[in-house]
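Submission sheet (multi-component)
Chains listed below:
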Amino acid sequence: MTQTIPKKLPSWLAGILAWLIPGLGHFVLGDRKRALIVFGTVTTLFFSGLALSGKWSLVANQQMGFDIRIRGIGLSSDVLGPLAAVPESFNGLATIFSYGSLDFDSFGQPRLEPAVLVAGLTIGMILSAMAGILNLIAIADVVLIAGDRSGRLTGPSKKRDPFFAVLLSWLLPGAGHLYAGYRTKGLFLGALVLGTFIAGVILGQGCDIDRQRFPYYFLATIFLGLPTLIGGVATEGIRVDESVDPRLLEVGLLFVAVAGLMNLLVMIDALNRVEVVNFADDEIPVADSATPTVARKT
Amino acid sequence: MLGFHLLYFLIISLVAFLVFSAMGHDDIPAILNHGIKRFLVFTLATAAFGGICWGLMEVF
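Outcome: structure written.
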């Protein structure tokens, strides 16, 4: 195997590049395959989300008072407008340019297009939010790679990939641990987090995955990738009315938000586990690479 | 109403303590053991703190 000299870049610069254009940090560091995957996935999710929601994703948080809070601390919303479009703002240039393309009326309110489909508003908002979170994970990955470059070589490697573990955990809680070889722990964490999420959706009577109505809770919930997408699509059309018990809705919101934040911890733990396993693989050479390299506890 | 919120608060606390314990332990009995122990200590500490605050408010 030929080994190429890895390209180096300061971590902060790699992070900024990845924030500006998804995949650019990976591209500059020489990981072109991953750069292409990140760019393609994030961009497709972002623009399909914007198209489906009629660009409502960009102003969802402003609509719900975020803008007012920014003004409250003395910052101009004209400057921070695109950045207030969290979590899309983790995808820098695309968010700034898309925000810039909005048409504002004389009262400073954006003129928004109607959503493409009836269900398009919810799905679109979740898709573009997923693009932001996915790019946040990619930014973390490229910062770690740039920081760890001295020990890392480009080319095929049998090691498990921390980025992939985090991605799996984001999509499905516990999947990153399964990937790292921690089977029982992965299933335990998955059941715990998903159970809390499902309990939250049931308690909230299907009203609690609503980015327009509950943007702050949604920011926590989006750390559960696929469950939020599937839950959001499945509960599309359910609106808060007299039949919904507000006390149960409040608790349901809390449950889904806690599940999302717990999954953030699970993602961090999955990253750590994979790095521990990779480190152990470096320390203990084995003859047969097809078998598990370390006697891992479950 | 208070009991209702207390119940859900306790459930969320238990979930959080189990997830935190899973980060530090490898097998399920250890996770459950440590998670539930931490949860009990936390709950007792919270209750004690709440009790002290309530007592002080009553006195002053």
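Remark: The mean pLDDT of chain B is 84.
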